[in-house]
Write a structure and sequence with these properties.
Number of strands: 35
Shape: globular
Distance between the termini: 57 Å
Largest sheet: 7 strands, mixed
Helix content: 25-40%
Radius of gyration: 35 Å
Number of helices: 26
RNA sequence: GCCGGGGUGGCGGAAUUGGCAGACGCUACGGACUUAAAAUCCGUUGGAGGUGUCCCCUCCGUGCGGGUUCGAGUCCCGCCCUCGGCACCA
């Protein structure tokens, strides 16, 4: 055995690192097959770890593959550069958020280059640059003109840690998604985008997104939360007002025994004002205060004890004119429906709990009854009949047949829904209605590092938009101070009213950074436009994005906002498509072991001594798998991996380690396995390359049986790798290439003298070609060593010959009673012939079958023969 | 509670959608090479058992319990566990 050297990846990577840029410059005006590949652009938070790399490595591999298939591939990159971490870092380091951000961007661009990841950097976007955020402001003004941007006082989520408001979407379990502080409620006047206007479309169009993960669609579906019901006006005793409620169960209206108001409901204030007894009023006020307070603190808690307060007032049920007591209840939400509910204890678990606690009447009005039950009575007799007949236990939340419901008694729930709704509608006491959980998008942030909202507050003229000709409203170029944002910079906010020229004040809020990412994919098409956000003609040609890839953590926020923007822009005539992303793939996280000491918290793996002891105190460490993060000190630096094994090894391992959509553990052993494989490929190609100069023409007619097997394997591999890449099964694509490598290695070592050189040459070329999107450095080098002058990135992706997929011989499994008992090798032509297969199988199994009764023979052409015997 | 993933060797994971379970890789063990180690190469690696001519055989085995089928990791019914999303949504 010759001593085998490790390939010199350092030299190779240095040679090709800067070579590929020119192949990925895209002229968006060139016709041809376009392919818009897009990775979610990153927030420039610092140095990237191998977990971040997964997203971009998948993208680079996919883009290279598509390019080889002859597509004009647009694969741009940019930076989501506004946001809070920059401000926090700036405060900590006494610098400007811009300096920190720019430094990180430069570092990340170097990392992309080290990884061999190529983007068309002429199209780079940085959202913190005025030439980008100018258009955020422009869109804002267009939205404002159309009533899609509005200012309203609302109870907002206030994060005391970040000193700013948050969108509903940014509150996780009652805590800030960024800093984890408990979120408070504050009443503030803020800017909103009217995303609810598109609730129905956003929901309905999910159906169009065939190539989105089901999981993501479901999450959006639930988030939008559509429900169909009836809005019902109850009368108010002693008042001409009406009490409006929304219900999805109008069929249970005869079961109403109380009403409940949210503590924030406007009627509550009225009742308080009208209360004649001061002691009673004080009690009611105390209850309301407590409920409001509780709402803030326990938001997100699993279940809170239901509490209520009887207001002493009564409502009138429009269906039967019954008098029902009105309560204030902590479990009724102001933000959903009308902020008031009709209480039906018999058919709603929450109302049941409430009614039980306060001794309210519980009236059954729906009985489970359906044809299935009746059918069972006929066939199964006594016991079942009795069991089915006893009414279901309360609360019964299912549907059924109405009882105790006046003229509607006997109807099914579905019929009653419609009939009762129509009845109320005809009398002007109700109407069919659709409600959504989705709320409008609160975009104001009380921060510095974001897009200034282009509005001016004038004492005389009110709120005045900044004229479009004066955009962008730039962030003031002053030394960065601290937490209160633009409100502490008079140079910024002091201005004159565009209307009356009098003194006025600029809006000091900036926009949520999700505005930046809601349209960046459009800007990439024509990033240097100065007079408009993008070139609509080019955008309509290139969009929707053909393949979008990113983390599942953006399943709701970013993807919903981007869809909303697209629809709003379409309605403004700026684009002509409904959905921005045709295909979506969400990749999983990379995890790594993290070590935690009870005293010294997270310990970096390199510091851990003697197995699992803390280096500071010697205590036993707790070891757990976590996704890589700086805070848990379990990140792996790509720089280190590249120094040891090269960028190709990191890329290959990242793609091979497991299915890309799944979370997966990073292991050093796995990295070494990928490195070994690349060495094997290197040695295989180099051991043959020089011998192949006189290879001659490939002639399949001269193939030996062995040659034919290799040929088949080659074509099978091309087929499965192609299909696997298309479906993002990148791990199996790599393993197929490994199998081919093993087969070729066997072939050239078995009988080195007898190899078919033309076959070897073609096989090695195709091997290097199909491997090149994954490990471009080594493949570019090997391509040259195989005698080619031109770049591998510029080659065409190999295609397979369906003829070659079928071997001349096939192995057929012989089963007896479903168990494999033997095999049969037959020529390809025979493998499809049922009768012949059966004949041969029976003949071969003759000895075993002696004395057995053959009951049946099943033949699956090309696969197996199953002989069913008795006895 | 509701919705959606997922449960396969010591580990990450394959399995043409009903047709040879465990591809590919890792780990571990044995061997070759070496003064030695590393690297590399060869072999073994789901479990149990067997008088087993070297291409050996038998049984068991894909979270659990049933079912359909000639045949089930895959389909159906009923559970368990786990991860993620939503959650007093009327």
């Amino acid at each position: 055995m010759p001593r085998i050297a490790q390939y010199n990846f350092k030299k190779i990577e240095k040679r090709w690192k800067d070579f590929w840029d020119r192949f990925f410059k895209v002229d968006t005006h060139t016709p041809g097959k376009k392919f818009y590949y897009l990775n979610m652009f990153p927030y420039p938070s610092g140095v990237l770890h191998v977990g971040h790399g997964r997203n971009y490595i998948i993208g680079d591999a996919f883009a290279r593959y598509k390019k080889m298939q002859g597509f004009t591939v647009l694969n741009p990159m940019g930076f989501d550069a506004f946001g809070l971490p920059a401000e926090n870092a700036a405060i900590e380091n006494k610098t400007h958020p811009r300096d920190w951000t720019i430094a990180n961007i430069e570092g990340m661009k170097r990392q992309f280059r080290e990884w061999g990841i190529v983007y068309d950097w002429d199209r780079e976007i940085r959202t913190c640059e005025p030439d980008y955020y100018k258009w955020n402001q422009w869109f804002f003004l267009q939205f404002y003109k159309r009533g899609l941007a509005y200012r309203a006082a609302a109870v907002a989520n206030w994060c005391p840690g970040c000193q700013t408001v948050l969108a509903n979407e940014q509150v996780i379990d009652g805590r800030c998604e960024r800093c984890d502080s408990p979120v408070e409620k504050r009443k503030l006047t803020q800017w909103f985008f009217k995303i609810t206007q598109y609730a129905e479309q956003l929901l309905r169009d999910l159906e169009k997104l065939e190539h989105w993960p089901e999981r993501v669609k479901k999450m959006q579906y639930n988030w939008i939360g559509r429900s169909e019901g009836v809005e019902i006006d109850f009368g108010l005793e002693g008042s001409s007002q009406r009490l409006k409620v929304f219900t999805t169960r109008p069929d249970t209206i005869f079961g109403v025994t109380f009403m409940a108001l949210a503590p924030e409901h406007p009627l509550v204030e009225e009742f308080l004002a009208q209360a004649s007894d001061p002691a009673f009023r004080a009690q009611m006020e105390a209850f309301v205060q407590r409920a409001l307070q509780q709402g803030e603190i326990t938001r997100g808690a699993v279940s809170v004890e239901k509490e209520g307060f009887f207001t002493g007032r009564y409502a009138i049920n429009p269906i039967n004119n019954e008098r029902v007591p009105i309560y204030i209840a902590n479990y009724v939400l102001m933000e959903y429906g009308t902020g008031a509910i009709m209480g039906v204890p018999a058919h709603d678990a929450r109302d049941f709990e409430f009614a039980t606690k306060y001794g309210l009447q519980i009236r059954r009005v729906v009985e489970s009854s359906n044809a299935l039950d009746e059918g069972r009575w006929e066939s199964e007799g006594g016991a079942t009949r009795e069991a089915s007949q006893s009414p279901p236990p309360l609360p019964y939340e299912g549907s059924g047949r109405l009882i105790n419901s006046g003229e509607f008694t006997g109807l099914t729930s579905a019929e009653a829904f419609r009939k009762i709704g129509e009845f109320l509608e005809s009398r002007g006491q109700g109407r069919f209605a659709v409600k959504y959980k989705l709320r409008d998008w609160l975009i104001s942030r009380q921060r510095y590092w974001g897009t200034p909202i282009p509005m001016i507050h004038c004492e005389r003229c009110g709120i005045v938009p900044v004229p479009e000709s004066e955009l962008p409203v730039k962030l003031p170029d002053v030394p960065f101070i601290g937490k209160s944002g633009l409100a502490e910079i008079p140079e910024f906010y002091q201005t004159t009213c565009p209307h009356c020229q009098g003194p006025a004040r600029r809006d000091t809020d900036t926009m949520d950074t999700f505005v930046d990412s809601s349209w960046y994919f459009l800007r990439f098409i024509s990033p240097h436009e100065r007079e408009r956000p993008f070139d609509p003609e080019a955008v309509n040609r290139w969009l929707p994005v053909d393949q979008y890839v990113g983390g599942v953590e953006h399943a709701i926020l970013h993807l919903l906002y981007a869809r909303f923007f697209t629809k709003a822009l379409r309605d403004m005539g700026l684009v002509n498509f409904d959905e921005p992303f045709a295909r979506l793939f969400t990749q999983g996280m990379i995890e790594h072991l993290a070590y935690r000491c009870p005293q010294h918290n997270w310990i970096h793996p390199s510091e851990v001594r003697e197995g699992t002891k803390c280096p500071h105190c010697g205590q036993e460490l707790k070891v757990d798998l976590h996704k890589m993060s700086k805070s848990k000190r379990n990140t792996i630096s790509p720089h280190d991996v590249i120094a040891h094994y090269g960028a190709d090894t990191e890329r290959l391992y990242t793609l091979f380690m497991g299915p890309p959509e799944r979370d997966i553990e990073w292991t050093e052993e796995g990295v070494r396995g990928s490195f070994r494989f690349l060495n094997r490929v290197w040695n295989l190609v180099l051991s043959q390359a020089r011998k192949l100069t006189d290879a001659g023409e490939l002639n399949t007619a001269q193939f030996t049986e062995r040659d034919r097997k290799v040929w088949q394997k080659l074509h099978q591999t091309i087929k499965s790798v192609t299909e696997d890449i298309e479906s993002f099964h990148l791990n199996t694509a790599v393993s197929a290439i490994m199998e081919l490598t093993n087969e070729l290695t066997d072939y050239v070592t078995e009988q080195p003298k007898k190899i078919n050189k033309a076959l070897v040459k073609r096989s090695l070329e195709d091997l290097v070609l199909i491997l090149s999107p994954f490990t471009p450095f080594i493949c570019e080098e090997l391509w040259r060593r195989l005698g080619h002058e031109d770049a591998i990135v510029d080659q065409r992706w190999p295609t397979y010959d369906p003829q070659a997929l079928h071997a001349s011989e096939r192995e057929i499994v012989i089963q007896i009673n479903g168990k494999v008992r033997d095999r049969l090798t037959v020529p390809g032509s025979v493998s499809e012939d049922r009768a012949e297969l059966q004949r041969r199988a029976l003949a071969q199994m003759q000895p075993r079958l002696a004395g057995k009764q053959i009951q049946k023979v099943i033949v699956v052409p090309g696969r197996l023969v199953n002989i069913v015997v008795g006895g």
